[in-house]
Write a structure and sequence with these properties.
single chain; 5-stranded mixed beta barrel; 3-stranded antiparallel sheet; alpha+beta; 38% helix
Length: 247
C-alpha cells in the first residue's frame, strides 16, 4: 500500500553501502521506519529528504515489513540548527527522546506537533535548554511518569514552600516533607517554573530567559527524576553534559 505522510526524520541508520533506514515521526501514523534506497549516494534524490531533523512530505510503499521510500519533499531542513553545534546537540537529544519513548505505529498526533514546534523554536533562537525542559515534561506525560508539579503529592496542598521528592513523585509541602528525608530542596522560583512548565501549551511559549543557576537546578532535578523512572539511557544526553561542562 502507498502512503503519503507529513513527518520529521528523528533517526538515520546506514544499511549496506548506499542505503539508509530512516525513522520518521509522522502526523498520520506515528513512528514508522522506512528504507531509503541509494540515499547515501552523492547524487541521490533522497539525500536532502533523509537528513536528521528534516520536516517534509514522504511517500512510501509498505506491506508487512519495513516501508520503502518512493519520493519526498523537504519543507524545512532547520538550517540554523544544523549550523550550530549546541542547537544540533539539543535537537538530537529531543529526537532520541521521542524515539525511545514511543513504539512504532503508536499514533499520538500531539507528539508530532510538539516535536515540530520544538525544532522551530530552537531554529529561531529560543533557548534550547528551556525547550528541552518543556519537551521532557510532555514526554513524561506521554510515558505516564510525570511528577506532581501543581500541588503536594501527599496532602494536595497548593500553597506554601515545596521541596521535590524523587521517591514520592513530585512536590512535598513543608508539612509533608518528613515523608522523604532525601527530598531535594528547591527555590520558590523553581517551584513556580515547574508548575508553569507543567501546564504550559508549548505553542504558547514566549522568549523565556532563565538564569544559569536556575537552569542547573532544573537540570539536576530533571536528570535525577528521569533516571529513576524512565530506565532509558540516551547517548545524546551524555554529549549534552559534556557541552555543559565546557561552558
Amino acid at each position: 500500500m502507498l502512503y503519503k505522510v507529513e513527518g520529521i526524520v528523528i533517526k538515520t541508520v546506514p544499511y549496506g553501502e548506499s542505503n539508509l533506514i530512516i525513522t520518521l515521526y509522522t502526523k498520520e501514523l506515528g513512528k514508522i521506519g522506512v528504507m531509503a534506497r541509494g540515499a547515501k549516494k552523492p547524487k541521490s534524490r533522497f539525500t536532502s529528504i533523509t537528513q536528521l531533523f528534516t520536516y517534509g512530505i514522504f511517500v512510501f510503499q509498505k506491506g508487512r515489513g519495513l516501508g520503502t521510500l518512493q519520493q519526498g519533499e523537504a519543507l524545512s531542513s532547520f538550517r540554523h540548527i544544523r549550523e550550530d553545534l549546541v542547537k544540533t546537540a539539543y535537537a538530537a537529544y529531543l529526537s532520541e527522546l521521542l524515539d525511545r519513548f514511543t513504539s512504532e505505529d503508536d499514533m499520538k498526533p500531539d507528539l508530532f506537533g510538539w516535536m515540530k514546534q520544538a525544532l522551530e523554536y530552537i531554529n529561531h533562537g529560543i533557548d534550547p535548554e528551556v525547550i528541552t525542559f518543556l519537551f521532557e515534561i510532555k514526554m513524561m506525560k506521554t510515558a505516564g511518569i510525570v511528577p506532581e508539579l501543581s500541588r503536594c503529592v501527599s496532602c494536595h496542598r497548593k500553597e506554601g514552600d515545596f521541596s521535590f521528592s524523587i521517591r514520592e513523585g513530585g512536590f512535598l509541602c513543608e508539612r509533608c516533607a518528613y515523608k522523604d528525608p532525601y527530598r531535594l530542596k528547591i527555590s520558590k522560583g523553581v517551584a513556580r517554573l515547574l508548575n508553569m512548565f507543567y501546564h504550559l501549551d508549548l505553542a504558547r511559549l514566549g522568549n523565556v530567559s532563565l538564569k544559569k543557576e536556575t537552569k542547573r537546578e532544573l537540570r539536576m532535578l530533571f536528570d535525577a527524576y528521569m533516571e529513576e523512572y524512565s530506565g532509558v539511557f540516551l547517548k545524546s544526553k551524555k554529549f549534552l553534559k559534556q557541552l555543559d561542562d565546557l561552558t
